[in-house]
Amino acid sequence: MAAILAEQRQELVFNARICEQLSRFEEMVEYVRRLAQLSVDLSNDERNLLAVAYKNVVAARRDAIKHLVNLEQKEFRSMKENQLAILRQYRGGIEQELNNLCLDALVLCDRYLLPSAAQAESKVFYMKMKGDYYRYSCEASIAGSTDASERALFSYSTALELAQAQLHAANAVRLGLCLNFSVFCYHVLHQKEKATELAKKAFDDALAVLDSIPEEAYRDATIVMQLIKDNLDQWQIQMVC
């Protein structure tokens, strides 16, 4: 039985990687979903495949929604009523697709991934993932976004508490959590001071211990730290203006 499970797991990972290389992310989601449903503690590489698959299919919908919103705002005065109706129908359909994908990722986290996670880093990763997908629902203004916002806040806060207790300050998963949590505070909750404080503390704490970690971990940490710094610089300019 164990051998069959291992073979199935290996085949799903192989197919997911092929799909990633071919940018066939819709199919990739199918493979990583089945991988998660095996109820095994995923490796770092397997976790990353899961994240890449869902991030790309969701990003496509998020970008489409933003484009439709901008188009409606820009062309509102010149559009006929039936054209606006068509535009809004497209948006509603894409929002529902996004909502379904977010729900799919959240169910995987609650039903399979978190119960199977053995390490603190994996638990933080999946709680962060829950925060992210509740946040995407909020950003798309899907019905029930107030509830989604509260659930995102709870997921991020729970993940941060665990990360601060059990993960190194320069751990890339912890830094990624702080990056996304601060974005949520800034853009969804509109708590700009809290977002800046959270991001700056994460950056400063990691910087203080950066020289004490292995080269590969150093590289991963500095990539996320640069993203945090970019946000801090941009937010500072926006708050001054």
Tell me what the structure shows.
The chain is built from 9 helices and no strands. By secondary structure, the protein is mainly alpha-helical. About 85% of the residues lie in helices and about 0% in strands.
Which features would summarize this protein structure in a list?
241 residues; mainly alpha; 9 helices
Give a concise summary.
This protein is mostly helical and 241 residues long. The chain contains nine helices and no strands.
- Low-confidence parts, pLDDT < 50 over ≥5 residues? none
Oligomer: single chain
Coarse structural class: mainly alpha
Helix content: over 70%
The tally of beta strands, per DSSP, is 0
- What Rg do the Cα atoms give? 19 Å
Beginning-to-end CA distance, first to last residue? 63 Å
Q: What is the general shape? A: globular
Q: What fraction of the residues are assigned to beta strands by DSSP?
A: under 5%
Please give the count of helices: 9
Query: Describe the biggest sheet?
Result: none
Give the SSE string.
HHHHHHHHH
Arithmetic mean pLDDT: 93
How are the secondary structure elements laid out?
Elements (H helix, E strand, L loop, with lengths): L1 H20 L3 H12 L7 H32 L5 H36 L3 H20 L5 H22 L5 H16 L4 H18 L5 H26 L1
